[in-house]
Structures are given as structure tokens and as C-alpha cells.
């Protein structure tokens, strides 16, 4: 129901007010910030659920939503004035070696820590993954995660499907994915309270 309302509202805006549609899907615009709020809410719901049951899966999902927030906001660019979580930064020989090496070290450390955590809890993660479709919000969460993966994979192609506004499809699908993830995680947190 919520996703249908989002789709109808965005399509109506695109049809009746194309200038406003362009404005809301721009970089750092309202749709992007709404995605951030929804992903943050999903992450918080995951951390709340992690206190009760299936902590590893909920912690990893919360970390994943944190990554989505970083991707939407480009936090590294906001903090450092340029994207540093980017292969172009790491491979730019014109920049000093120390900051580039430090970036690689920090990213590698985070990846290793998360991988070790997942490996340590692999049995519980496997059980949680197998049980996910049978939970109240499981299919909703799966749909949101699959949709965001598809959008991130094909985001350049999505920008070419409509003549204008360029980012409309990408941002619309990301908003729907964020809403699905939020609803799925809230349902998980609610299920864990029962």
C-alpha cells in the first residue's frame, strides 16, 4: 500500500509538475533525504531487534543500512571535501601516498572485521537467512534489498530511460526500496517483541 502510494505520487508529480519532479529528485534533494531517514529508521529498528534475538543478522543489516546512508549522502565527500571511498582517490598518483594508504587500510579493516563477525556467527546467520521469508516482514525486506541491489547495478542505465528528469527513476526506485526496507525491519523488530 505504501509503495503504491509512493509510485502514484511520484508519477502524478512527474506528469502534472515536471519542474517540481526534477527539483525533488536532484542530488541532495528531498527524495534523497527521505531515503536517508528511512534507511536510518531501518538501521535503528535492526539494532532494537538485535537486543532481543538474532543479533548477528540484525547487526549486519543495520551496518548495511549505514552503508546505504553513506552512499546516498556521500559522507566522505562532505567530511573531506572530496570522495575518498573511491578507487579514483586511491589510485590518484598526484595525491600523497599516506592518505591514500590510510584509506585503503581503514576500508580493508572494516571489511575484515565485518567478515570475521559474519564468519563467527555463520550458523546463526544461515538460520536467520533461511527463516527470513517466513517472518512477517521478511518478504518486504527481501524485496527492498533486491530492489536496491538492482538499482545500484543499473543506475547509469536508469538515467537514460527517461529524457527528463535524469535521476527520476533511480531516486524513485531507491525511495521505494528504502520504504520497503524500513517496513520490513520495523516488522522484524515488532516480531521480536512478541
Task: Kindly summarize this structure in a few lines.
The protein is mostly helical. The chain is built from eleven helices and no strands.
How would you characterize this protein structure?
This protein is 80% helix and 0% strand. Helix 1 (2-16) packs across helix 2, helix 3 runs parallel beside helix 11 and helix 9 (138-153) runs antiparallel to helix 11 (168-193). The protein has one domain. The chain starts with a helix and ends with a helix. The model has no long low-confidence stretch (mean pLDDT 88). It has 194 residues and is mainly alpha-helical. The protein is built from eleven helices and no strands.
List its traits.
mainly alpha, 11 helices, single chain, 194 residues
Beta-strand fraction estimate: under 5%
Rg from Cα: 19 Å
| Number of structural units classed as domains | 1
Sheet with the most strands? none
* Number of strand segments: 0
Give the overall shape: flat
Distance between the termini: 24 Å
**Helix proportion range:** over 70%
Uncertain stretches: none
Order of helices and strands: HHHHHHHHHHH
Number of helices: 11
Judged by helices, strands and strand pairing, the structural class is mainly alpha
Instruction: Determine the mean pLDDT.
Output: 88
